[in-house]
Known about the structure:
Elements: E1 2-3, E2 26-31, H1 38-48, E3 54-60, E4 66-67, E5 73-75, E6 78-79, E7 88-91, H2 97-100, H3 104-114, E8 119-123, H4 126-132, E9 140-141, H5 148-153, E10 157-158, E11 163-166, E12 169-172, H6 177-194, H7 198-208, H8 227-236, H9 238-260
Parallel strand pairs: 1-5, 2-3, 2-7, 3-6, 7-8, 8-12, 9-10
Antiparallel strand pairs: 4-5, 11-12
Helix pairs in contact: 1-6, 6-7
Amino acid sequence: MVGADISEHQTQPGDKVMSTKEDISVSIGIILFSNLTQLDFTAPYEVFSRLPNTKLYLLAETLEPISSDRGLIVLPNTTFAQAPKLDVLFVPGGPGVNAKMEDQSFLDFLKTQEEQARYVTSVCTGSLLLAAAGLLTGYRATTHWLSLNVLELLGVEVVRERVVIDRNRITGGGVTAGIDFGLAIAAELFTEAMSTTGYAYAQEIQLAIEYNPQPPFNSGSPQTAPPSITARVQAASQKFQASRRQIVQRLLDKQTQNTDSPQ
């Protein structure tokens, strides 16, 4: 079972070794929901937890345990109703995105937090939730490669990159891109706050967690994977992706009806 307290993260041996200004304080809200992909948020969490003077909020509608798509149990520490003003609003992805794209109260919470957040961010298909809430309109963004076409249907300028930064919108690609995304956030936050040290913070964290990927296979992208492998992964996800596109179509139809309705 995974959970976290909301205490401010202080310097620990082996991490956060750089000095920082005492008046810098960062709040990061991680949105949790049933059937999310745990690595979408635990990878960035590992990076975020090493940032100085940073409070991490695991936000959910209730404090009830949440099961990931692979059965890991996660404990929220703050309800939506208790959520403070956030510097970073972060939405992970996963199969549970499908239900949340049509959950208006959930989307309204994202909209409310967006109004105050310095950065609005996601990893993997969390960007579909941001887009469903209308928070990526006019922005460049990315998502898991299997859902790039779905994100495009929602009116987003889709970019096939590991991390995409467009003004205060920062989106990461699929699942494992969460570490890259977390390091990009670290650099953005502390470069903005302290002029030149943000990249050093991010590099120190990268070294501390020994993020030096050397995968045993070159199959981490449809551009590099053997065509037969790509075809099998696409086939396995075909029904699920079709269902996701149907949800998006319902959202678009609803938007059209609302537009056409007399005021």
